[in-house]
Amino acid sequence: MNYEDLYLTLQPQEKNVKDKLSALQKLFKAISRETEGGDIKSLIKDLNALAETASALSDDITQVQDTVSAFDTASYFESGEFADQMLSICREQNVNVRGEFPVYEMFPYRVKLDTENQDIYLDRKKIPCVRPKSFVELVKKGQDKLTKATFNAQTFLNELSEAYDLAIMKAKKQPGYDIYLTNLYKILVPMSRYRKDYDQQSFAFDLARLYSSDVQETKNGKHFQFGPSRKQNKAIRILDQNGQEQYLSTIRFYEGETSLFTAEDQAEKR
Predict the structure, then answer these.
(1) From CA 181, how far away is CA 199, in angstroms rounded?
(2) SS3 46
(3) Is there a contact between 183 and 162 (Cβ–Cβ < 8 Å)?
(4) What angle do CA 134, 138, 140 make, to 5 degrees?
(5) pLDDT tens digits for 163-203?
(6) Cα→Cα distances 87→8, 121, 205, Å
(7) 3-state DSSP call for residue 243?
(8) Percent of the chain whose predicted confidence (pLDDT) is above 70
(9) Helix (H) and strand (E) counts in the chain
């Protein structure tokens, strides 16, 4: 089962409907002129033509309805065919995707297939779409829009640094200590209702743009360094400037060229 087959079948059927609608519109305009001008003979003739065209239109609409009804949407989703075709189109469109049925990540979006209701969720938004190609194009369009959006890496880094200072103060740690990025996210967006507008995936996208930028220090001259962690649930997946996935878990800010702590020093504390 493939929606593209249904799409090809519907194209000529929809054209028939469009042609009939166009003919009806022309006949209606003619009838209006004939009514106004008192041309009864032509009026009767065109009214008959209108009735015949309307009947033919009804038949064409019924044909479209039958074709669409014959497409088993529930089976299409439940069998995994929709997902397989979606992944295939992602490869064709160069859309990075990972995960397993029914939950995927198309950075920075989270995609969930609701097989029971034949819906797709793009983050928290329900997308009523049964055509894999259209859905992937929607994702790619959104990714391109995000990529082109104005982003000030310097400002974002400064804000991260300020959140970091609060985090180490609360944790009673010295500057240069690794702090989880997920902890900084909660400081940057402390109220849950605001996280709907700036969720963790949006945060990850900004981290990716910072990661790929040329910015190396804050406005106060502090350097920073991302780091890994043994705790997989703390890792934030991003795509770098080459489209390669990277996993960022922590960040440290420090004065000078080197950090007070090495990765080995802090590994024992995790």
Answers:
(1) 13
(2) helix
(3) no
(4) 115
(5) 999 999 999 999 899 999 999 999 999 888 888 888 888 89
(6) 21, 16, 21
(7) coil
(8) 95
(9) 9, 10
Tokens of residue 13, six digits: 């059927």
How far is residue 260's CA from residue 238's CA, in Å, rounded to a whole number? Answer: 27
pLDDT, tens only, 148-161:
889 999 999 999 99
Cis previous bond, 102, omega within 30: yes
pLDDT tens profile 11-56: 999 999 999 999 999 999 999 999 999 999 999 999 999 999 999 9
Tokens of 124: 């928290």
Given this model, what pLDDT does residue 118 score?
A: 94
The pLDDT, as a whole number, for residue 4 is: 97
Instruction: Tell me how far apart the alpha carbons of residues 139 and 222 are, in angstroms, rounded to a whole number.
Output: 36
In this structure, how many other beta carbons lie within 10 angstroms of the beta carbon of residue 110? 17
Asked if residue 113 lies in contact with residue 120, where contact means CB atoms within 8 angstroms, the answer is yes
Helices (H), 94-176: 132-148, 153-171
The DSSP code for 126 is: E
Q: Could you tell me the sign of the dihedral formed by the alpha carbons of 21, 22, 25, 26, in that order?
A: negative
List, in order, residues 6 or more apart from 258 with CB less than 8 Å away.
none
CA distances from 150 to 145, 153, 196, 240 (A): 10, 10, 20, 18
Cα–Cα dist 203/185, whole Å:
7
**Among residues 97, 107, 267, 105, which one has the least CA distance to residue 250?**
267
**Secondary structure class of 144 (helix, strand, coil):** helix
